[in-house]
Write a structure and sequence with these properties.
single chain
Length: 177
């Protein structure tokens, strides 16, 4: 399978799919950061209230709260970026696979899936390229196309049924003779 070292022009390849991936990947970590930061804010506020009641001055304590809020903002940004980058590594190959299949369907028998370094779904694209190669080699043989596009389990099923069909045909011929 060939991989292209160049980069995609846009990090958002398939908005709907990537949005779903980002939400699925980011919400647990984002929720954990928010809950933890809310707890920290609560405790810092409590310490500030207790310090005021005791007439103790803690000039650095409000900055702890500001640093905590900054941490939350940066953490949520990093979480969103990592989730978007992950979605890009999945949605990009899906987009490439769909584009290749459409080209093949439209008659381009040389169409193959080409991914970039670091993309996911490389095993799937290797298998798909193998299927496309087999189908392209036997364009007039419908049976070969069927075998090329069938999954491994389907291939075994087709081959077993072909043997059973051949035996049944032989029996019918023997009976009719």
């Amino acid at each position: 399978m060939s991989r292209q070292p160049n980069r995609r022009r846009s990090i958002v390849v398939n908005k709907r799919t990537q949005w779903r991936i980002v939400v699925e990947q980011a919400w647990p970590a984002g929720l954990a950061v928010l809950i933890t930061s809310m707890g920290m804010c609560f405790f810092v506020t409590q310490v500030m209230l207790e310090a005021n009641e005791l007439a103790v001055e803690l000039p650095s304590l409000p900055w702890v709260l500001v640093a905590g809020i900054g941490f939350v903002v940066v953490s949520l940004g990093v979480i969103a970026y990592c989730a978007l980058r992950f979605s890009h590594r999945v949605a990009g190959p899906v987009y490439s696979i769909r584009r290749t299949l459409q080209s093949f369907r439209d008659g381009d028998t040389d169409a193959r899936v080409r991914l970039r370094d670091g993309d996911f779904l490389t095993d799937l694209t290797d298998d798909l390229n193998d299927i496309l190669e087999r189908a392209a080699r036997a364009p007039d043989d419908t049976n070969a196309k069927t075998k090329a596009t069938a999954s491994i389990e389907d291939r075994a099923y087709v081959e077993a049924n072909a043997e059973v069909d051949a035996e049944a045909d032989a029996e019918v011929e023997a009976t009719c003779s």
